[in-house]
Design goal:
The chain has 3 domains: about 280 residues, Metallo-beta-lactamase, Chain A; about 150 residues, 3-Layer(aba) Sandwich (Rossmann fold), CATH 3.40.50; about 35 residues, no CATH class. The protein has 14 helices and 29 strands. The strands form 6 sheets. It has an 8-stranded mixed sheet with strand order 9-8-7-4-3-1-24-25. It is globular, with a radius of gyration of 25 Å. Bound molecules: zinc ion (ZN) (2 copies). One zinc ion binds next to helix 2.
Length: about 500
């Protein structure tokens, strides 16, 4: 669709939404995929937990897909690989931490050793087809997050995925200012940049002072303390260890994904010299004021550890008056109701709840406005293309970029093919894009009949008539009518209605 002497960017996910990132770069007839993430179901997708981008465009061009580079180990960047790799069937490039997580997730969809994963060094260089890639270390809320400087003979595109500036990220190096300045000095065609926190003034804040604050907060807690955070946040996990040491407690991990991340982190050289974590089954043997639990489920996920504890349905752990739950995470838009339910349940148990509105217990992993300005200053991009945002974030980011001296900004939402070079950026075409729901082992289009019918049924109910006939077409039983979601009881009441 694009001419082979053009360099184009085509997002199939993550532009126009926060979640399920999937970007394609096209050049000389080849396509490079950056990230392959998931997003989670909501009220409009009943019965759907996980969704992935519609990969139809790249499947039609599958012979030209040279590889997939994963920028970091968050679900919205790599969670789609187990579901889509059979169709993509290409080499995958990832740093050891992201590769470690992928290796553990792939067996869940029967892809134990099928996927060729090439481990690349953080900050390293490699080539995929006609694309020469230099990785740049970024501080974020998971180790080994990488920006990609994608070099072609038409110029370099700098793809800056999720990031922040943090002088004390605690785990892994800070964002590599020197490398970013160098890339800027060498000249870029365009900067693609994270838009998540574009509405937030100032700076995001650092993991270092947060650790100190958590020590203060936990110091004032009486009995058991549970810290709810994202499992992948290894810096937060390490902070919990320090908080526990400073307050005379032991750290227990509650939730499978926390154990998995701890194992990967240790394999990759993080969390070294840390004391053994306590197993959930052994918490009961410790005095209540010596327990610091890290728990999964900060977003109110129904099957996660915190939801079960709050419902008093956890086999090993219970919370009671005098205990505290600290939400060391942000409330992801859309999850407010689930989190509210959780908080009500904890309130019924007389458990104290502390979140980021009550005390300094969380910092974001995304750049606020001053950090964006700093990056523009280092890279001096002639063109800014916002990514990782809903439409309102992308539009605001364009405006903010222009206000800060970037001459040209361009926006591409999912499915819009944007030419990056030669010439000014320009939308060339609109290709198929959308979402697929993961339904067991199959993928079902979210805008297709199955999910649409489920949505209709949840709003209007369904009527079912059962008529049993013999082979001559004669009735052999009284027809049954049921109408779940419309009326209670048997068919007669329905008939009367
Ligand atoms: Zn992300
Ligand atoms: Zn991320």
């Amino acid at each position: 669709m694009n001419k082979s002497d053009e360099l184009v960017f085509l997002p199939l996910g993550g532009c126009g939404e926060i979640g399920m990132n999937m970007g394609l770069y096209g050049y000389k007839g080849s396509w490079l995929m950056v990230d392959c993430g998931v997003t989670f179901g909501d009220d409009l997708t009943p019965g759907v937990d996980v969704m992935v981008p519609d990969p139809a465009f790249i499947i039609e061009n599958i012979d030209n897909l040279v590889g997939l580079v994963v920028t970091h180990a968050h679900e919205d960047h790599l969670g789609g690989v187990p579901y889509l790799w059979r169709q993509l069937n290409c080499p995958v490039y990832a740093t050891p931490f992201a590769a470690g997580l992928l290796t553990r997730k792939l067996p869940e969809t029967g892809l134990a050793s099928a996927v060729p994963i090439h481990e690349v060094k953080p900050g390293g260089n490699f080539s995929v087809g006609p694309f020469d890639i230099s990785l740049v270390n970024l501080a974020h809320s998971v180790p080994e997050t990488q920006a990609l400087a994608i070099k072609t003979s038409l110029g370099t595109v700098l793809h800056v995925t999720d990031w922040k500036l943090d002088s004390e990220p605690l785990v892994g190096p800070p964002t590599d200012e020197k490398a970013l300045r160098q890339i800027g000095n060498d000249g870029v065609l365009a900067l693609m940049c994270d838009s998540t926190n574009v509405f937030v003034e100032g700076r995001t804040g650092s993991e270092g002072p947060l650790r100190e604050s958590l020590i203060d907060v936990v110091q004032n807690c009486k009995n058991r303390v549970a810290i709810a955070c994202f499992a992948s946040n290894v810096a937060r996990m390490e902070s919990a260890i320090h908080v526990a040491e400073a307050t005379g407690r032991r750290v227990a991990l509650v939730g499978r994904s926390l154990w998995r991340i701890a194992e990967i982190a240790k394999e990759c050289g993080y969390l070294e010299n840390c004391p053994e974590f306590v197993d959930a089954r052994d918490i009961g043997y410790l005095p209540r004021d010596e327990v610091l639990m890290l728990v999964t489920g900060s977003q109110g996920e129904a099957r996660a550890a915190l939801a079960r504890i709050a419902a008093d349905d956890h086999p090993d752990i219970s919370l009671a008056e005098g205990d505290t739950v600290i939400f060391s995470s942000r409330e992801i838009p859309g999850n407010e109701r689930a989190i509210g339910r959780l908080r009500n349940q904890l309130a019924r148990l007389n458990v104290e709840v502390i979140n980021e509105r009550d005390a300094f217990v969380h910092v974001s992993g995304h750049p606020a406005r001053e950090e964006l300005q700093q990056l523009y200053d280092w890279v001096k991009p002639p063109v800014l293309i916002p990514i990782h945002g809903e439409a309102r974030h992308l539009i605001e980011h364009c405006k903010f970029g222009r206000e800060n001296g970037i001459p040209v900004t361009a926006m591409a939402e999912n499915g819009e093919m944007l030419r990056l070079a030669p010439g000014e950026p320009k939308i060339l075409a609109q290709v198929q894009s959308g979402r697929y729901a993961v339904d067991g082992r199959r993928l079902v289009p979210v805008e297709g009949d199955v999910v649409r019918a489920r949505r209709r049924m949840t709003f209007s109910g369904v009527a079912v008539a059962t008529v049993v006939l013999d082979e001559d077409g004669e009735l052999i039983k009284t027809p049954q009518l049921s109408a779940p979601g419309i009326v209670d009881g048997d068919w007669r009441r329905c008939r009367d209605a």
